[in-house]
Structure formats: C-alpha cells, structure tokens
Specification:
Two copies of one chain form a homodimer. The first copy, chain A, is α+β, with helices and mostly antiparallel strands. The first copy, chain A, is built from six helices and three strands; from the N terminus they run ααααβββαα. In chain A, 46% of the residues lie in helices and 15% in strands. In chain A, helix 1 packs across helix 4 and helix 4 crosses helix 5.
Chain lengths: 151, 151
C-alpha cells in the first residue's frame, strides 16, 4: 500500500482540494503559503470551534472554503467515474444550506448543511475519510443508476 | 374538452401558483386581491420589460415570485407522479441563477436562469404552456428512469 506513505496533505483528495483553494484565491491571499498552511483553515478542532459563536452567518471566506471542498469532491467523482459532476451549493439562513452534486440526470450527493459558519473537520485524517466516503458513495450510486448518470 | 372552458387563471397549474403565492405572502400584502391580480406580476409584457433596466439584481419580491413559480412546478410534478419533488433555486450574480427539481435521486428539471430581475411570461397562456411543458418533460424523465426517481 503506497498510500500509507502519504501524509494527509498528499492524498489525491487533499491535492485536489489544494488546487480548488488556489483557483478560488482571486486576491492572491495565499501567496507564500505551503499546502499544509493552505488547508489548515479546513481543520476545525474543538478548541477552534469554541472560539466561534454557536449561531452565525457564514462570511464569504468561509463560503469560499465550503465551495472549494465540494468542488474538490465533484472533481474527484469526475476523475473516478469519467463523467462530468456538477456541484450546486445553496445557503439559506443562519448557517443552513444544501449541497447537491449531479452527474447527468443523477443526484450523486445530497446533503443538508448546518453550522456552515463553523465548517471544517476535526483533523486532516477526518477530512480525507469523509471526502473519500462521499466520493465512494457517489460512485456506487452511479453504478446503480448508470443510465440516468449518462443521460 | 373541459379545459377549453377554463380561463388561464383557472388551469390546475395557475391554481397551484395562486396557492404558492399565498403561502409565500408572509406580510399579507395580497389581502383583497383576486386571483388574476395575484398572478398579474408573473406577466412580463414587452412594455413592462422596457420599463426595467437590462441588467440588474433581482430583489426579494421578484425572487419570491420565481420561487413560487418553481414551487408550483414541483408540486404539479408531485401530483402527476405521486413522488416527492424538491426544488432548489440558486442565484449567482446580475440576475443569473440555476434551478433544479429532484425526485428521489433523479434530476427532472435543470434550468439556467437569466434576467431574473425581469422574470415573467408574455401572457397567461404562455405561463401555462411553459409550465405544462416543464411538468410533462419531468414526467417523461421519471418514466425513463423510474428506479432513480424512486431511490
């Protein structure tokens, strides 16, 4: 298993996430940061969570992060399936939202989001594990409903 | 054909639209209006269009109207198919947006929206015709990918 040698920032998903973060960095705010530093804001430890109010509206920086994450999930689904995957992210109020990823006429991910203003993962390992699970579930869904995915 | 006797405000779709407009009328602004008056803002004649700037951001009143329309389309799909239809509306910038309606894991309507700040139909007949076409297409899609729709 070559994967055991990869650090959590070197996994295929984390590398895709780095690309997405870079592509959404319209103001070149990331200049000079290494990859671990670029992904660091995705880690929301208990300590960090405590420093953020329980209820709040996510600002544009947080939303760019959420978008980067689900863009990376969609791109990974694309790579694994060979089919175009399109994310659609919608926020409603007080940090609630919904994200869909569609492939053709098929919904391969459908998730209610909450606490968006505190978006993040307990650790890099968790970030990778949860993303991989979303990607794997999407691939299973595509295999089950291939015709709708190709429509 | 009993349908020929219905005025365009009496069609099943227009009646559903009236219900949606009422349910989104949180400030009771519609009190005292009859159904034709309630649906009148959905009619965007050439004359009315000319009075609205070419480019603009849709305000909350227009967006409530767009939401009411696609809610009515989703509800009509539900009635015709017996399956739950969920709309998801997202605006991006300068009147652009996207609307999806999903049934189970199936996308039954996927539309790019533009000129949202001038949302409307040339006539009541057009409003009905276009809505009916969306609903019929959705039903055809459900029949073609029944398993994904029931997933």
């Amino acid at each position: 298993m070559s994967e055991t040698k990869l650090t959590p920032v070197q996994t295929p998903f984390a590398q895709e996430l780095v690309r997405q973060v870079r592509s959404l960095d319209t103001y070149d705010m990331l200049d000079g940061q290494n990859e671990a530093e670029m992904l660091d804001p995705f880690i929301m430890t208990k300590q960090r969570k405590r420093e953020i109010p329980l209820v709040g509206d996510p600002d544009e920086i947080v939303m760019a992060r959420v978008r980067a994450f689900y863009n990376a999930v969609a791109t990974s689904i694309e790579t694994a399936s060979g089919l175009r995957a399109v994310p659609m992210l919608k926020t409603s109020y007080e940090g609630f939202g919904r994200v869909l990823i569609t492939v053709g006429k098929l919904v391969v991910l459908d998730k209610t989001l909450r606490d968006l203003h505190r978006f993040g993962f307990p650790s890099f390992e968790q970030l990778n594990t949860r993303a991989d699970r979303m990607i794997e579930n999407a691939i299973v869904t595509i295999k089950a409903f291939r015709e709708a995915a190709e429509a």
